[in-house]
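User: Please predict structures.

Assistant: First:
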Amino acid sequence: MKTEALLEAAAEAARKAYAPYSNYKVGAALLCADGEVFTGCNVENASYGLTNCAERTAVFSAIAAGRKDWVALAVVAEGESMPYPCGACRQVLSEFCQEEFSVYIAKADALAEYEVVCLAALLPNRFKMTN
């Protein structure tokens, strides 16, 4: 799958977001090795701590479908700045992804001007349980 198509899938997911409190709609598209894509959007709640981010929605959907063979994630949102994943989403990604895992970030009105960053740059010295 081309990067542009993955970013567009994330943009489409953002349009489905439920964000009545922040009005900040975010979409994510998680690409599997075989080309299947799992999307997610942020879903807010009046009890703000119960809000779920787009990235985690996509990850949890993929896990529920039995998929963990991801190769990239795209995150798209409207706004002035690039929609980098929050700390919780970075930690969840680190549970399943290698440090080289690619995350594509773009503003909804400028998909062609995306940035790509690896998970290690997003979450250096990540927390890992050891046996």
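Second:
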Amino acid sequence: MKVQTGYLYHIKDDFFDKINDKGLMINHENGRARPTYFTIKDKDILWFIPLSSKVSKYQPIVEQKIRKYGSCKSIMIREIAEHKSVILLQNAFPTLEKYIDHPHTKNGVPVKVPDNLKNEILYNFNSLLALKKQGTNLFFTNIDEIKNQMLEELKISNK
């Protein structure tokens, strides 16, 4: 499978079985593969950013952050594949291609986020990473620990 930045994917349960991080969102809800993840390919590491359909839950949080800080880069509400979606950058985590279950499709075609939205997500994600480097961590998961685990898995599998 060719994994590309800007497409949506679902992740295998194996990842959640392996990684014990309370900041990770659950992988299944009501028997459906959830959530869908916006994916960023960064060499051998993939960054997964969960999407949610719970706009009414997150809209007040976004509005509160905008009132308090002037903007909100950790949660975005945008239209993806003709549905309003919440893009939860604060819940992003690194993983490996082997943990991808399948691409998210619509009418049998993998869903690609429009380039302008993809670029906005990448900008906000990189802003969150830069803030983390400066000591302000807005991620709910321990991205450093998970990334180290993924890199260690790569080392072992490449031996």
